[in-house]
Amino acid sequence: MPVSRILDLSSRILILACSVAVLATACADPGIYTTPNYATKNGDPRVNRTFRLGVGDKLKITVFGEDNLSSQVEINASGQVALPLIGEVPAKGKMLSELRDTIARRLAEGYLKNPKVNVEVLNFRPIYIHGEVRSGGEFAFKNGLSFRDAIAIAIAGGYTYRAQQGYLLLVREGGQEERLPLPSDLPVLPGDNIRIPERFF
Q1: Exposure pattern of 138-152 as b/e (b: 16+ CB <10 Å)?
Q2: 134 Cβ contact list (under 8 Å, min separation 6)
Q3: Residues 50 and 188: beta-carbon distance below 8 Å
Q4: pLDDT digit string, tens, across residues 144-198
Q5: Rounded CA gap, 77 and 108, in Å?
Q6: For the chain, first and last CA: distance in Å?
Q7: Half-sphere exposure of 47 (CA within 13 A, CB side)
Q8: Angle CA(47)–CA(52)–CA(54) in degrees, nearest 5?
Q9: Which residues contact 38 (CB under 8 A, 6 or more apart)?
């Protein structure tokens, strides 16, 4: 094939590729809430898929290019986060992406043009383990915990000799107490209230 024809074909391919790229860009949603959501710092993906914010979660909120509007905040007892300019924003019960979008929308209402926002969890709210364990109480949440292994119980000192080890009673925030057979692949989530019942001899 002559060199001129090869060059002509290459030029056409290049033009076509550029046209597709431009069209894709034009068709993309130009909304103001397209910032990637980095979810949790070194987060467990199982938690990230199901995680909803609650009282006591500490967040890092970044408004890109606006250092004075970026902050580290904790969700207060009323389920809100207090932010510069826009004041209190409801956070409890929201997914990270939902809170991110709410903050961006509020900033866009008379404060910033096309704000780019990211929300990241720095510290999760604790979990609670009580009942027939040796050292029940409040414990820092750690990524990677599930009810398949004994780690979730071990952090509370392990079972007592009276413990029912075939199931536990679990309350997730906003839910009812449910019986969970053990072992289970269900991940432990921030705010979980875990009770180990007494077995009947």
Answers
A1: ebebebebebeeeeb
A2: 156, 157, 158, 159, 160
A3: no
A4: 888 887 777 888 999 999 999 999 999 998 789 999 999 998 889 999 999 999 9
A5: 27
A6: 89
A7: 21
A8: 120
A9: 118, 120
